[in-house]
Amino acid sequence: MSLAQVHHISAAAGDESAEGRFTAVGRGVTAALLAELEPLFAYALPDGAPHRPTDAELRSLPQAFTYAVLSDGSRVVGRTAPARGESSAPVRFHTHAVHIPVGVPLPGDRLPVEAWRSPHWATVTPAGGASLSDPLGALPPGPAPVREGLDDFAVSRGPWLAAVLSDLRRASEEAAPAGGPVVLVERRSADVARWLGLAAVALPRESAERLTFTTYTRRPGSSALRVVGVAPEDAAGAREAGLRVHVCADRPPVEATGDVWARTAARVWRSRAPELFQEARGLPGDPFAAGPLAVVALCAGVGLGSEERAAAAGWAAERPYALDAKRVGQLVEALTSPGIDDRTGSEFDAVGRLFGALDGRCPASVTAPLAAMLVTEAVRGGNGSLELPRRDAFVGPEGEAIAGVLGPEILTELESGAGGSRPVARTVQLLRVARLLGMNTRDLLPDVATRLAPALLRATEAETERPEGPGPSGASKPPVAPAFAPALLELLDEQFDVRTALLGALDRIAPEDPGAVARFLERVALPFTGTQALPHLRMCAEAPGAMTTLGRDRTALWHRILRAAGLSPFAEPLVLRTAAGLVWEDRAPTVEEARLLLEAATSDAHRAAGTWSRLADAALGAPADAEEAEALAHALLRAFPQEIQGRERAALQLLALCRDLRTGAPEPGWADRVRTLRDRAAPLEPPVQERAFTALAGRLLAPDRPGAELYAFVRSDDADLIAAYDRAARTEPTRTRLRTQPAYAADCFTVWTAHPHVGPAWTTTAAALLEEVLRPAVRSMSAELVAEVEETVGRTGSSGRANAFRDWNRSRTLGRLGRRIVGRVRRG
Fold first, then answer.
1. What SS3 state is found at 352?
2. Angle at 256 between CA 253 and CA 259, to 5 degrees
3. Of 71, 146, 378, 464, whose Cβ has the fewest other Cβ atoms within 10 Å?
4. Which helix (H) or strand (E) holds 547?
5. CA-CA distances (angstroms) from residue 20 to 8, 9, 43, 81, 216?
């Protein structure tokens, strides 16, 4: 069908009183459409344009080639070009446009940009009106002239190519992107058209048809089109308007785009292979996925970057059926090319997935280069996340060749004593590759396992937060498997000898830090099947579930974990250490729990396991009112006389002495012994000191205390001990005894008035006890009881002391009493 044409001539440059007008309008173009078209044809001269240009200057002025969609869904393709005017208006701007109704394709099913170099665009209104040659329908058949020279243009714009194609792709989306048009800054408007030509070839047809544009405007911010071209002098204004600006006539950009499809398309254009775009569209997948285009580019010998190669490998791994044998071979050859030196971990991972997809589908001769590449990277690149080939991937010469190259490197690294600091994933990968290549590592396994076992624990602690809770298995967060777990489990499943050596090494170190082993096993479910006893590992594996079930019942937890070992403490004493570490971790048991531990095995077993230290901690850390701690201390000193030494021994001896002071007959000299043991046990635990001082004070306040011990205590003038004595004397039991037992009151009077010059601590305390404790007690007595106290003081002391009591009882001030007592003692 014949398309309607429109001609329009603008006002003269600089003549504000003149108006543009339509000089010819084809059939079917309504007045409403003309009103919509006129703003599209507006033209403003660039800065510095001459008022009366020469013919050459006139031809050099930019032309606005425009493609727009109108409000009714119809489209318009037109060109606005400067033309020679009359003498009063030397430059006029003539627009020749073609109106395309809704649903009507362009002649020859062309794209709009293909008409920008049509020879039939008119610069003057034809004498016959708008019925002359159609610039769209008169295009020659075959590849459109617009594609001529695009290869050279793409190469010349290489630094900007990927970024511009990325923005043009986004601009061609079905929903017009927000933020205004993409602005292409070129010195020549024809180069803007070439950019659109590049996009028309690279984009799918439906995307290219949505890409409305003009090659020249001076008002990009007010344009409703998706792509506009501007001259360099208007670039700053476009940036100020917040538009996406590409200054292709300036220095190349520094930052590369993250659009992998655009980067791949740019490499295709720079390789002068635009036919690959159509070839890629014949492959399944998203039209803007980088994978299909990268695949056909690699198969055609186009060099790509690492991300693009990864996209190709990943796409082919998901659709191995989409490529024929020839393309598969070409892709493998391109991916494994020895000239590539910029491979990344993501590329190797994608190649690993591709190998897994092709393995079994293709001959081994096709996949062997992929397998060799993966194994070489696993050894030399340190990529521990690679999916390794199956063991039979290297059969025959290929396997022998790669083993001959990599084998010595693997053995040297495994033998290295630096294995303790080597990442776990690295050691696991080396062991798996060694088996894959059929290498004999039997002699290395004991040392490798010994170094690997503690490294597993350290790596697990570093990768996962330690859970909160009472033990190694916290309930606040679910256990998270470390990154190396899948590869480790595959290694243990593949190699029985490695599993045996590693489980044995873990079992040996478990007693040293069973909590760490339990946390590791909670995250990595190691296989315990087989004939190995592994008592410590079994206990560590049992602990998390037992803690969840039994909660804080540590006695029940202790028994359950010990049963999980499958061995008694008599046969394997170290299970005591493992169980204690799991149940109590870094805390001390209670005294009752310590008695349970002590009775669970012989002293020899506890000595071998080292758990006697936990028992000592339990005794020394017990509260001051836990009397069982004294009996536990006595038992520990008898059971471990050689092991318990130094400060701990003195502290336990002090606890044992407390028991004798309370219930037995301690050996003479115990008052001094309390002070001696206290000094040896420094820094002494506060509960132990409180218990010892309380026991000593209670014994010294007893009616039957030996006088020599009391004398030694008083003469020590130890402020802390005397303060404890003072506190004990002020307790209610002592006050009650003073009020009800005249003999006891007489004895305390004698003691508290004796030795007035031994030292300030005792003198001050004794005077305070007389005034604040004994006097209220005596005043509460009946006259008969007071007389009995006085008589007892005289009978056990002297007549002078009886008189002193009588005076004290009548005195109101302690100072007067003190002076009298001193005088009578001196006279006596």
1. helix
2. 135
3. 71
4. helix 535-550
5. 7, 6, 10, 14, 19
For residue 326, give the nearest of 364, 280, 362, 274 by alpha carbon: 362
* Beta-ladder partners of 229: 184
Helices and strands (H, E) in the chain, number of each type: 39, 9
277, 265 in Cβ contact below 8 A?
yes
**Residues in the chain, overall count:** 828
Residue 250 dihedral angles phi and psi, to the nearest 5°:
-135, -160
Which secondary structure element, helix H or strand E, spans residue 804, and what is its range?
Answer: helix 799-810
Q: Which mean pLDDT values do the consecutive 10-residue runs of the chain (828 residues) have? A: 85 60 89 92 86 83 94 93 75 90 87 88 78 69 65 93 95 87 94 94 93 94 93 92 89 85 96 94 91 96 95 94 92 92 89 89 85 86 72 73 87 77 85 87 91 91 60 57 88 91 95 93 86 92 89 88 90 91 86 88 89 89 85 91 92 91 85 92 91 91 89 91 94 94 93 86 93 93 92 80 87 50 45
Cβ neighbors of 680 (< 8 A, separation 6 or more) are: 647, 650
Grouping H, G, I as helix, E, B as strand and the rest as coil, residue 25 is: strand
Residue with tokens 């396992």: 449
CA dihedral 108, 112, 118, 120 (to 10 degrees): 80
Query: Angle 707-716/719-729 helices, nearest 10 degrees?
Result: 120
Contact 618, 591 (CB under 8 A): yes
Q: Are strands 64-69 and 213-214 parallel, antiparallel or unpaired?
A: antiparallel
The structure tokens listed for 250 are 């300036």
The model's pTM is: 0.67
How many other C-beta atoms can be found within 10 angstroms of the C-beta atom of residue 417?
8
Give residue 784's Cα distance to chain centre: 84
Which amino acid is present at 122?
Answer: A
CA-to-CA distance for 704 and 700, rounded, in angstroms?
Answer: 9
Backbone phi, psi, residue 652, to 5°: -65, -40
What DSSP character marks residue 184? Answer: E
SS (H, E, C) 90-101: CEEEEEEEEEEC
**What residue has token string 């439906």?**
206
Cis bond upstream, residue 683 (ω within 30): yes
Asked if 106 and 80 touch (Cβ cutoff 8 Å), the reply is no
**By three-state DSSP, how is residue 183 classified?**
strand
Q: Is the separation of the CB atoms in 41 and 80 below 8 Å?
A: yes
Among 726, 734, 740, 735, residue whose Cα is nearest residue 789 = 740
